[in-house]
Each structure stands twice: as C-alpha cells, then as structure tokens.
Amino acid sequence: MLSTMLGQVAARLDPAVGAQRAPLLVPAAWAGAGVVTAILSLIAIGLPATLVLGGVWSLAFGYGRLHPATRGPAAWAAGIVTELAVICSLDFALALVSAREHGRVVHLVILLVAPALGLAVAFLAPFLRRRNAGTTDDPAQHAPHPSRAGLALVVTVIGLVVELWIANHGRGYDVAWALSGDGRNHLLILRRLLGQGGITLSELRNFPALANDVAAMISAAGGRHRPPGALMLHDARAVSSTYLLSGIGLGCMFIAAILESLPRATRMARRLPAGVVVVALVATATTASSLVLGTALLDGFFPTYVALPVAVAALVLAIRCINDPSPYSFGLLGVATVFVLFTWTILAVVAVAATVVVAAALSRRLIRGAGWIAASVVSLGAVLLVLGILVTQYGKLRTQFLVPGPPPTPVQHWVLYLFALIAVALLAGSPDRAALWRRAIPTAVVLMSLITIYWLRAITPDGQTWTYYGAKSLWAFTCCVLWIAFVPIALAAAGLPARHRLRASADAAQFLAAGLAVILVIGLLTKVKDPLHEASHGWTQPSAAVVSEVASLGDQRKPFVLWGYSDPGDDRLGDFMAVLTWGSTAKGDALPLPGFSQGFYEWGYEDDFTFPRLCLLARAVPELHIITRQPALHDQMRDSCPASGAHVFLTK
C-alpha cells in the first residue's frame, strides 16, 4: 500500500505527466509546493542554507529549460556542481580582493547569485534555444526528458522534516551529532577561512578546504555578531546544515544514478513504473544509514561526506552524456572533478574514471564544434590537473597518506569486490553499445577505486596495513558506488509489462521487499549505530547536554572547563568547544597558554585528560571556573592545587 502510494505521488508530481492534463494547474501546484518547502527549509536550516538549496533547484530548472539533454536527474547533478562552483569561486575572488572577514550582506549576496542565475537562464532559455537552433547534429538533445522533480522533492522534504524533528528535542540536539571525531576541527577551519576573507590558494595547498568554505559562507551569511557561546552554536549549525544539504544531495544523486542506468524507454516514459520509484526511494535511505552517514558522523568525515554528492553527480553526468551526448554534461564533469579534488583529494579518482570512459565513448565528438572543444578543454584539463598533481606531488601525498591517526570505523574489506562483481555482471549483460558504455562507467570507477586502495596499502612498510587514509578511502569509495546494488532490482522493475493497478501494487511491494533486503545486507558492513536514533537521543560524544552547557557558560565570557561533568570523552570535546568561546581569537587561533605548547586547543584535543593537567591549567589561567558533578573535586583542588585560584562549581 505504502509503496503504491509513493509511486503514484512521485509520478503525479512529475510535471511531464501533469502537463498533459492540466497545463495551468501544474505550475500552480509546483509553486505551492515550492513555497511550502521554502518555509519548511527556513524553519529547519535558516536563510543562508535555504539559499544554497534554492540555488541548486533553480539551476537545475534553468539547465533543463536551456538544454533538454540535461533535463531531469542530470539537471539535478548539474545544479549541485554549478551551485558549489559558484559559491567557492566567488568566495575565492572575494579573498583575493580583501583578505579580511566580511559582513553578512556580502555573503548573502554571494549566496543569492546562483538562484538568480538559475532563474535568469530559465527565463532566457526560449530565446537562447531559438538562437542555437540547428547548431546540433543530435536530435536526442531536443527530446522532452521528464524532470522527475517529484522524487527530488520527496527526498528534500524528508531531509528537512528529520532535521526539524531532531532539533525540536532540545537545545544542542541540532548540532551535537555533527561534532564528533574530527568534526570539532572543522569549526576551527571554518573560522580561519572567515578570518582570512575566504578560500585561498595557500589554504588549499595545506588542506582541501572547499567543504569548509561552504559551511563558512553559510555561517557568515547568517550573521556572526553574537555572544561567544551563541557564536559557537551558530558555527556548529552551519556545519550541521552543510551535512544535511549534502545528505539531501547524495540521496537525490543515488536516485539519479539509478534512473540514468535504466533503458531509454523507461527513462523517457511519462510515468515511471511504481516498482522503480520504490527501489529508487529505498536506495536513498542508505545515505542516512549507519554505513554512510553514521560512519561520517562518528569519525568526523565532514569534507568527505560533502564531496560524496559531487562525486556521484559526476557519475550521473557521465552516464547522461553517454545516453544523450551533450557538451554541457561533459564540461560539468571537469568542474565536478576540480571540486572533489579540493574537497577530498582521493575521491577525485571517481570523477577521473568517469571522464575517461566518456572521452573514450565520444572521442569523435570531442573536436567537433566550439561547444565540445570547450567542454573537452575543461574536463580533460581537469583530468590532466589530477594527474599532474599526482606526479609532481607524489612524495608529499605519499607522506601525508602514511601519517598515523586513529583508525576509522572499519568497513568490511571485501565490499568493493562485491560491487565490482555486480558492475561487471551488469556490463556483461549490456544489450547494446549504449548500454555497454553506460555500464562501463561504474565498472571503471570500482576498478579504479580498488587500484587506489591497493596503492594506499602497498606504500605502507609491510605492504598490507590498513592506514587511516586507506580505511577512510575504502569507506568513501563504497559510499560512491552503493547505488549499484539497487540497479539490478530497478532493471527488473523496469522490465515488467504494464499491469493493472492491483497487480502493480503487488509488484511494487515485491521490489520494496527486495530493496529492504539489500539495506539489511548493507547494514552488516559496519558496526556503527543508527545515526538518526543517536541524534534524536542527544548523541554521545559530544552530547547535546554538554554542547548546551558550553554555549550557556560561554555567553558569560569567563574562562571555564568541564571536569567530571559527563564521561571523559564527552568532557574533552566540550572543553575543546569551550576554547572557541574564551581561549581563541576571532580567526580561530588558540591564545598562548603556559605549559601547553599548542595553546588552549591542546587541553581539549589531547587524550591525556588527567588531574595533573587540570592542575596545570588551573595555575595557568587565573579565575578559572571548573564545572563538575564530583563533590570531592573541591577538596582535591584545595589540597593538590592550593595556589591555582580556580573556582569549583558543583552542578546537578
């Protein structure tokens, strides 16, 4: 019943279906849905993040109107890639003009550029298409591709509702889940980017910080003139909003990749089979699973998670370029490659592999016409950029990838072999040349991922150790190709003959069961707890209670630490965030602290969370407030640190 309803709702939300019945009713319905979604977004994630979301939607609409070959799921991918490129490019230019922190208005204007650009392209599309009429030799580029926007709308609304549901549990719930592991470090990077005026080449040489730049733009556009504790929460919300937007984007890209992998008759049909709709929506649930989102949150893989939707968008654009060759799609592959390269470098392998396959498939077109030549320069130039960095910076990259660190939550090492087997099976069953090239893309991506993983292990002293980057790369590549597991089910659903409503309901229920079975198997790939359950219960480290307490104490503008307030790990993360309120500069740099070589951040970052270090901190910081739930701490401080001058406050 539920699967049938989802299929019918998504199909009827598709303008390509409704426009045949009620030309005036459909635009009005979409306008109403847009207004409701915008209001929901403003409440859930605020104006700046809503502008980012609106920019993707408007750009996707503009691309679809301008160039029919990119309409539908490929336009979603184009919107994501272009939105991020516009934001980061404008911020880069701003930093070149003025290397200082800028106000809210400047950043709001930057975030408004993409929505305005998308609407302008949509408005001018009829004129531009008439002007370019007859300049293409490919009739497929004029085919009326269905937009399938209803599916994207469902994913967007679900993401916003879940965010609102978690936030309504209490203060700190909306951000605690985004600050585990390395998540705390990205608050520092965000502040440093704002302090130097935006993203710069010097910053990108040290760290691929484009994901942090997006979060910094959202934070700055929301206004940063706040008390210290409120500002810490505000920055954390910018990170959590970026996580949410990335999750929505990744969910839409999973749907897009599955739909683009279907036969042309199904892709071009006015209404998708109910079974296909169900499978696509079930696949999106994996983006919020323990394997994908849970691992990212637990270990703080913020930049990698932000890079995932762009990497999968590159696959979508590549597959669409095979299905319906277009210089727009091919050129955007290069933009996606560059963004991923400077967001999480290793993941650029995915976009490079997809680009190479497309270039091989369309080699005769790449020098035909100014549009294809320009697209080739961008995309093949991006591939050469990646190869150039690998060759010239090999020693530096090798050293960096061998840097020791806490091993991430393990993913079963055989998982990529499983996806390689599925991809090769699909490739072997390709019915025609177009399907062969289309399915060669995920196959090439999985194979290049395996080669990269092998190299990351081969450079270790014993040639087989799973380093921090090796294990993290395995997880990232797995997330990029996770949708492949649902393609055979979607192909089976697409291949069924038309049924009457009762039989279609039974078919949809069967494919729902098959999709859920795949999710159960995927759940065995990691031992991470369900992230949505954990977030709705206040998370663990840091807990919502600690985040809320740090924000309240930070607003009092006095030096403080937590000790024995919660468990040691929770306290340590809380103390690290406390430094953002009283122990660091506006640019995120730690103030000097006697006895601590790295300043205040060393106190919250190091694992040596012992009483002698607390005593050392108390002697170094006059009038330090120690917040605790241990009644004996007051006497212990008096006896062991009599000259510290610290104040111990017992709380419930």
Question: Mind sketching the topology for me?
Answer:
Blueprint: H1 2-13, H2 15-18, H3 25-66, H4 73-97, H5 104-131, H6 149-167, H7 173-176, H8 183-195, H9 201-206, H10 210-221, H11 228-260, H12 264-267, H13 274-285, H14 290-299, H15 302-323, H16 327-341, H17 348-361, H18 370-392, H19 394-401, H20 415-428, H21 433-458, H22 468-481, H23 487-494, H24 501-522, H25 531-536, H26 544-554, E1 560-562, H27 568-582, H28 600-605, H29 611-620, E2 625-628, H30 633-640, E3 647-650
Parallel strand pairs: 1-2, 2-3
Helix pairs in contact: 1-6, 1-13, 1-24, 3-4, 3-5, 3-6, 3-10, 3-11, 4-5, 4-10, 4-11, 4-15, 4-16, 5-10, 6-11, 8-10, 8-11, 10-11, 11-13, 11-15, 11-26, 11-27, 13-23, 13-24, 15-16, 15-17, 15-21, 15-22, 16-17, 16-18, 17-18, 17-21, 20-21, 21-22, 26-27
Write up what this structure looks like.
This protein is an all-alpha fold and 652 residues long. 68% of the residues lie in helices and 2% in strands. It has helices at 2-13, 15-18, 25-66, 73-97, 104-131, 149-167, 173-176, 183-195, 201-206, 210-221, 228-260, 264-267, 274-285, 290-299, 302-323, 327-341, 348-361, 370-392, 394-401, 415-428, 433-458, 468-481, 487-494, 501-522, 531-536, 544-554, 568-582, 600-605, 611-620, 633-640, and strands at residues 560-562, 625-628, 647-650. The protein has a 3-stranded parallel β-sheet, with helices on both faces. Helix 30 (633-640) links the parallel strand 2 (625-628) and strand 3 (647-650). The two termini are 49 Å apart. The model is unreliable at 1-13, 16-20 and 135-141 (pLDDT under 50).
